Amino acid sequence: MPSLPRPQEELRERLVIAVRALADDGDGGHLERVHFNPPERSALEPLPTTEKVAILQRDSFTCRYCGIRQIFLPVLRALSEGYPDRFPVDSGWTTHGTHPAYNLLSATFDHVIPPDKGGKSDPETIVTACWPCNSGKSNYSIEQVGFKLRPPSHSGWDGLSKIYPQLCKLLSIDSRRYHQDWLKALHPDFKGRRSSELGTERRTG
Prior knowledge:
- The structure is a single chain.
- The chain is mainly α.
- 41% of the residues lie in helices and 4% in strands.
- A two-stranded antiparallel sheet has the order 1-2.
- Helix 2 (49-58) packs across helix 8 (177-186).
- The longest helix is centred in the first third of the chain and has 20 residues, at 6-25.
- 20% of the residues are buried.
C-alpha cells in the first residue's frame, strides 16, 4: 500500500483513534483530537495579469511540483465559450459538469509558502502548479506534503498560449473583458475589437 503524505498520515491516525474511542463510549470529547478551527484568510494583493503571464512563461507552463506540462487556462475558457456542449465548464468546476481538462491540465498559481504561514504575493515565491498538486498541497508547506520544488522548466512549452489570440479571433470572443486582459498581458500592443465591430463582421462575414 502506498504511503500517504505526512499530514494525511497524521490526520488519519488521529481520526482513527478519535472515532474508535467515540464508538466505544459515546463521548464526543474524543473529537478534540481532530478539532479544526478554520484559520483567518490572509488578504493578499492579487497579482497583476502581466505578472501571472510572466510566471507561466518563466516555468514554461509546467507544474513545478510534478513536472507535467499544463494548458493556459484562458485557452480552456475560450473553448468552453465557443463550444459549450463539447467542452463544458460550470462555476464550481464540478466533475459532472466540467471537462476534465480543467481539473487535470489547467495551469494555476501556488504560493510555495502559504499566505497563512507568511507567504507573500511575490512572483519569486509563486510557481506554476497543476490543479491536482495545487489542491493537494493546499495550505501546507512543501516539506509537510513531501513535495520537491523543481527548477523552472526550459522546455519552451507555451501551454498553447501562442495560438490563444488566433483562437479568440476565430471564436469572436476577443472583445470580452476576461480575454482582453489576458491578450494584453501576452501582447502589450494588443488592441481588442469592440463589440460593435464584431457585430458588423458577423453581418458581413
